[in-house]
Fold each of these.
Amino acid sequence: MKKVSAVKKERKGLMNMKGVFTRLVMPLVIACFLGVSPAFGAHPLITDDTGTQGKGKTQIELTGQFDRDDEGGTRTEGWEAKAVLTYGLLDPFDLVFEVPYTRVSAKDGETVREDGFADLLVVLKWRFFEQGGLSLAVKPAVTLPTGDDEKGLGNGRASYGVNLVSTYARDPWAFHVNLGVTHNDYKREADREANRDDIWNASLAAEYKLAESWKLVANVGAERNADVTSDTPPAFLLGGVIWSVSETLDLDAGVKWGLNSPETDLSFLAGVTFRF
């Protein structure tokens, strides 16, 4: 449920008016980096797979991401940390909670920073089909307005979405496809005017088992631009690696590139995953 600033082209002039920038523009700059979506695969992948934890099993992901974007003389940098808790209600059913914390700074003559917790994401994942190497899952999701919408750290109202997930696995390869739609509901009038409500997303990911404990991963995707002034879908390309230290511990790292102007230019990702 990604929000994109509708006043991106106006940042340079507004940065000289620090008070106005802090109250009106900075929240939208932050929103460019939040990107809450009901799709999150094995980190650093953004595209999800159909795998579930199994009844009574738990997974905890702790991830970090640094974003950098340059446009119109303004450099925007963002740091985001996430804690994602996944619990297996049944073998094909997972319940997921995602808590993000973000910090964003924009610089053009003056530096303005905002930070805090963003909206809480709650997801139910159901793998409803599995035959041979092909499996299908559906993921309804809702964001709860726990972030400060005045700072751009949330929508101010609950929003919802659903993703369809498919996986085809045949050693040493696995491929994942996600198709989804999100409906955003905004509390602030400025957000309603600047952003589209309904956002589609589509993405494809591939995994290659390089060795028993190592995987190379790649990801490409796009989504409808939430900025009402632009019809160009933000698109990305990602590459990374996952090291399975043991059956219960994974370490990962990745780099994400923006393929066009609406997408964040460059992101570095890292994470650790525990299962028990």
Amino acid sequence: MLSQIAILLIKTAFGLFVYVLLLRFYMQLLRAPFRNPVGQFVAALSDWIVRPARRAIPGLFGLDLASFLLAWIAEALMLALLYWLRGFSFAGAPGIAAGVLFTLAALELLQISLYLLIGVVIIQVIISWVNPHTALAPIFDSLTRPFYAVFRRFIPAIGNVDLSPLFVLLIAQILLIALDDLSRMVQVPM
């Protein structure tokens, strides 16, 4: 029972932190505005570690590598703690275990990125139906616009209804299935 509680707390704390760091990375990558409640929330939760890390990890071509690498390290640390709580020993081959953990963490980051995309698309669609002029609309628009643009080139709006969010969600789900199968092949045997 205590190990289940510990696993829940570890997944919750590290999961929130990884989601916030990835959202910060994507907000900066896609030039989303930070002067809104979402941007302020993300900055408030992650500034304490991202700003000092930027001194050691510089950006590259406009990418916030500090946020991304911190998310990757946090995900790998979470996986290591979860395996340790389940009784896995890393003493036999620490180098191989570290390689597998960082590979699994990279796959998890891809999955989390797709879940973030799905969530942002759903929220953006709801906002566009309910109140397209809300203060949060610009951030969700800037986070989804590059993904919609791919489909808007080929699929016109039908009766003033944009179907590109539907196709983005469909492709994200297909990629999640493929990543899930790939993650199962890389899993560490218990």
